[in-house]
Amino acid sequence: MIQDSAALAALCASLAEEAYVTVDTEFIRDKTYWPQLCLVQVAGASVAAAIDPLAEGIDLTPLFDLLANPAVLKVFHAARQDLEIFVNLTGKVPAPIWDSQVAAMVCGFGESASYETLAGKLAGARIDKSSRFTDWSARPLTDKQLSYALSDVTHLRVIYEKLSKRIAKAEREAWVQEEMAILTDLKTYQTDPDAAWQRLRPRTNNRRFLGILKELAAWREAEAQRKNIPRQRLLKDEALLEAAANAPKSANDLGRMRALTKGMAEGSVGQAILAAVERANALPEADLPSLPDKADIPGGRTALIELLKVLLKAKCDTHDVAQKLIATSADLEILAVEDEPAIHALAGWRREVFGNDALALKRGELALTVKGDAIRIIRL
């Protein structure tokens, strides 16, 4: 357990000599907008340590320097949330990185291989899950809690070495690197308050309603970030939708809303709601948002969508890769209607595995049949 700056600096200096280090974090987020970092676990070839970011006076700069060191590969499992934490703390994405969950998905471990699954199958380890729901902000941590936390980086070294060999043997390093490019793109972690309304999945395309909803959601997102509290604790989704539907113009209107308490209606929250509604009502019709048009799927194309699903399953079985990494159901619907849509399935390695054959199927240059228990592809 590293709880002082000198020990952390010595550890990171040692790890900076490694070809790769494994990294994991423990955090809590139930009372804050931004995740609160409670523990960072790192492991090299001969050392594993838990770094206590809550220790009084500790300077995490050596850790951040290690995460930014271009000569040291940082290996995570399901990296996105861990990376988001470091982006919030430093403004930068750790790099270079390697995600064992993504790697597992491209070499036969299913849709979302868990760490426990990979640890069991590749490292022969059983993870004691009893400490999973620990309050990681509480101190002191027990030996059992620390052992659980460190197991997330010690077994990960074996997982990385075995998975990376499989990836190399299958010549799929470029596949993994395409995915890592997305994870190391700073845009992946940027939250735009102006886009927050889309998360609410409104069911109407009334543009004035959507304009009010957009203003309300943008205010809530920015205010939740500023106060560092969960957006739902500031104001529930139901209140945003009700306000967008009723467009209140006065405190009396707010008082009639079921989703608002009296204190909210009469206080700063109520004032913010009225201001957001006023801003939206002042917008000209041309500046109001709208929902994207759904692809109009002709009757005959629904059968094509089903054929594309079969082709996707067959290609993923052949290449031993997870289907959701290639294309979603929405991607297939767009592909059935449009000739060259801008979807992931028609770019990079996904196009090689599935996209080109999907287009050939649409053009009538490919057919599907059954031989034994398997789907067979016939070139016409």
UniProtKB/TrEMBL annotation:
One of its GO terms (molecular function) is 3'-5' exonuclease activity. Residues 153-180 form a coiled coil. The keyword Cytoplasm applies. Its cofactor is a divalent metal cation. It catalyses: Exonucleolytic cleavage that removes extra residues from the 3'-terminus of tRNA to produce 5'-mononucleotides. It is found in: Cytoplasm. It comes from the Bacteria. GO terms for biological process: tRNA 3'-end processing. It is an enzyme of class 3 (hydrolase). Belongs to the RNase D family. This is Ribonuclease D. The gene is rnd.
